[in-house]
Amino acid sequence: MNSDLRKLIIPAVLVGVLLIVVSVVYFVEPAHSLPSFFPGHVSATNAEATHHHTKHGIAALVVALACFAFAWFQTGPRARSAPGS
């Protein structure tokens, strides 16, 4: 079981890095400048066009940190079986 989770270290780090980039985009760009596939994107004529989606950015950052924590804990020493088992 542990070796199956160890295979997820690199994908977890890659997803974490991607989510860091997504969170920066949410913090920096107003709603009308977000890529159209991002949740929260609105047209430039919308009343919320200059709104920044800070909560979306925080959520992406928290999930990125969770991915990094998962990868970190999976890099720990492997559990050994008991000698008498």
How does this structure look, described?
The chain has 85 residues and is mostly helical. The protein contains three helices and no strands. The model has no long low-confidence stretch (mean pLDDT 86). 54% of the residues lie in helices and 0% in strands. The chain has one domain (2-74). It is rod-shaped.
Gist of the model:
By secondary structure, the chain is an all-alpha fold. The protein is 54% helix and 0% strand. It has one domain (2-74).
Unreliable stretches (pLDDT < 50, length at least 5) are none
The gyration radius over C-alpha positions equals 19 Å
* Integer count of domains: 1
Largest sheet: none
Question: Could you report the average pLDDT, rounded to the nearest whole number?
Answer: 86
SSE ordering: HHH
Quote the beta fraction: under 5%
Q: How would you describe the shape?
A: rod-shaped
Fraction of residues in H or I helices: 40-55%
How many β strands by DSSP?
A: 0
Secondary structural class: mainly alpha
Kindly, what is the distance between the CA atoms of the first and last residues, rounded to a whole number of angstroms? 17 Å
Number of helices: 3
